[in-house]
């Protein structure tokens, strides 16, 4: 399974991010590219312990979805996004793309952190699980925009 924390995978993700043009339209879903960049920042901020959105989850959500985050199965197209992570406002493409790249770099430099705090909804993840789910999420959304 690929991991954000693998150097080749990380470099590939950054190249894919760079390849998304301002004119890109989604192959599925409602977000434009700038909104997708903004949306993709939240899981990285969560992994770094810097999330800006308070999230809650009940036992059933944790039970049903936690393993999906790091399983080998890709995320399905049009999987519903939790309301608190839906991005509907307008954002600047270049600014959000640059911010996502910066957050990705920060997480890369923090890749050896074995003591991440618990996820606010799903609880404890291992370093390997954090790396897999970061890759899965970015891969899903970059494919959404043809990258």
What proportion strand? under 5%
* Secondary-structure element order, N to C: HHHHH
Q: Count every helix, treating DSSP H or I runs of 4 or more residues as helices.
A: 5
Gross morphology is globular
Tell me, rounded to a whole number, the average pLDDT.
90
**Helix content range:** 40-55%
Number of strands: 0
The first-to-last residue Cα distance is: 19 Å
Largest sheet: none
Would you identify the regions where 5 or more consecutive residues have pLDDT less than 50?
A: none
SSE-based structural type: mainly alpha
Q: Taking Cα atoms only, what radius of gyration do you get, to the nearest Å?
A: 14 Å
List the defining traits of the structure above.
globular; mainly alpha; 147 residues
Characterization of the model:
- This protein is an all-alpha fold and 147 residues long.
- It is built from five helices and no strands.
- The chain is globular.
- The model has no long low-confidence stretch (mean pLDDT 90).
Short account of what is shown:
The chain has about 150 residues and is mostly helical. It is about 50% helix and about 0% strand.
Question: How do the strands and helices of this protein lay out in sequence?
Answer:
Elements: H1 7-18, H2 33-47, H3 59-70, H4 93-109, H5 127-144
